[in-house]
Amino acid sequence: MKKLIVIKFGGSVITDKKKETPTPNMKNINSLAKQLSQVSLGNRYKFIIVHGAGSYAHPLAKKYQLSKGMSTEEQKFGFALMNRQMLELNLLIVKSLQDYNLSAVGLAPHSFVTQSEGKLKKLDHKIVKYLLKGNQIPVLYGDGVLDDKWGCSILSGDTIVSHLAKKLKAKKVIFLSDVDGIYDSDPKKNPEAKLIKEINSENLEKVLEGITSNNPHDVTGEMKGKILDIKINLQGVPVQVLSGLKMGNLDKAVVQGLGGTRLQFG
Ligand code: IP8
């Protein structure tokens, strides 16, 4: 039986997240594709890839205030723009994976996922399941989606990761970010920040106190939201957060369970 692993390519790895306009990081995208092709060689795993939005959607979501609906014509245009830009980012990633001979299939969440007041309502995981059965790699992403109460809302890639990992009984979840894992304070601001190797129910509160968000364009609350999401939605699933910028990291995380921060609740 092949082990199912859900991998999130963070928006800060695949794009330049500080830019206001869509700016891909092709070097990192290609490096991740290469690493995934290497780790796929032994044919021991099935993968679901979920990627973040970075500069392809966070600035637009903020500019048009799309996290709680779209009532004006301007907002509806912003929503359409955001959907298109995310399709473009997904295409770059899918193409890079295919260039490394991986059967990656892009799935646009805005076309089959709905939310209600910003909470996931319907995601047909069977589409993902069928692709996995055929040894294909579904590639989903954080997106602006329709919302039955607000008109539209933001579906974070992390929500997709948790939902699919739970529904499809993943053996492991890996979050690839632009830092080596989770630190006791922000490593981009504090050179003394220490990497936390393990997070569990015992040290959770202390860890949460030390984390601060440092990107004004990010509408999804970054690391804190991620940790709480993991605690609530990924009970019993081993999770690893590590840098996607270093060659070989993906292999280390998938095969040996090493590197970065490991989280497990329950
Ligand atoms: O980058 C956010 O997804 P994330 C999606 O995974 C949008 O947090 C549309 C801002």
Automatic annotation (TrEMBL):
Domain Aspartate/glutamate/uridylate kinase: from-to ranges: 3-234
Site (Transition state stabilizer): K17
GO molecular function list: ATP binding; isopentenyl phosphate kinase activity; kinase activity
Lineage, opening ranks: Bacteria, Candidatus Daviesiibacteriota
GO cellular component terms given for this protein: cytosol
Gene3D superfamilies in the record: Acetylglutamate kinase-like
Highest rank taxon of the organism: Bacteria
CDD domains with a match to the protein in the record: AAK_FomA-like (cd04241)
Family assignment from sequence similarity: Belongs to the isopentenyl phosphate kinase family.
GO biological-process terms attached to the record: terpenoid biosynthetic process
Binding annotation for ATP: K8, F9, G10, G11, S12, G54, D178, Y183, D184, S185, D186, P187, K188, K226
Residues involved in substrate binding: A53, H58, G157
Designated name of the protein: Isopentenyl phosphate kinase
Listed EC numbers: 2.7.4.26
Catalytic activity, as annotated: isopentenyl phosphate + ATP = isopentenyl diphosphate + ADP
